[in-house]
Amino acid sequence: MQKTIEPSWDLTIDPDTVRLFILKAKAISAALSDDYNDGAEHEVEFDGNLRDGHHHDGLAEEESENLTEKELRALIGDLNVDETAELIALAWLGRGDYEASEWDAAVAEARQRGRRRIARYLLGMPMLGDWLEEGLEAIGA
Predict the structure, then answer these.
(1) What is the spatial distance between Cα 17 and Cα 76, in angstroms, rounded to a whole number?
(2) How does DSSP classify residue 14?
(3) What is the 3-state secondary structure (H, E, C) of 74-100?
(4) C-alpha angle with apex 28: 107 to 125, nearest 5 degrees?
């Protein structure tokens, strides 16, 4: 009987860091879903006299920002080239673009993207948190 050899994944990026990204990405996604599901939250309502019925706190409301997204962008920006490539490769693995056996190819392809607009690219993935989680599971990390 032949023994199956498990591949050893020597990640540059700490799996716990990826798990932090997963939590933040899921929080961002949940906030977007809640906002989308509410629908009318940001709409202006008019009463019978065509007056603005939308009550707000002026500029304080307009300046509110999603700190979770800002934090995640900063954390992604702090990654080195290898960590960035692995993070992208994990997302691709979780999304099904690559199999775990193609890990090296996924990382090489991710490295070709360079470091420009990585946070924007990753945060543009609608299921980033889930895909990162599935990517980690695929490589057993």
Answers:
(1) 10
(2) -
(3) HHHHCCCHHHHHHHHHHHHHHHCCCCH
(4) 35
DSSP string, 16-85: HHHHHHHHHHHHHHHHHHHHHHH-GGG---B-TT--B-----THHHHT---HHHHHHHHHHHT--HHHHH
What phi-psi label fits residue 65: left (phi over 0), alpha (psi between -120 and 50 degrees) or beta?
A: beta
141 contacts 11 by C-beta, under 8 angstroms: yes
pLDDT value for 4: 40
Predicted TM-score (pTM) of the model is: 0.71
CA dihedral 10, 11, 17, 22 (to 10 degrees): -110
How many angstroms separate the first and last alpha carbons of the chain?
27
Structure token digits, residue 54: 């939308």
φ, ψ dihedrals at 9, nearest 5°: -95, 115
pLDDT, tens digit (0-9, with 9 covering 90-100), for 13-28: 999 999 999 999 998 8
Domain boundaries, the chain: 66-141
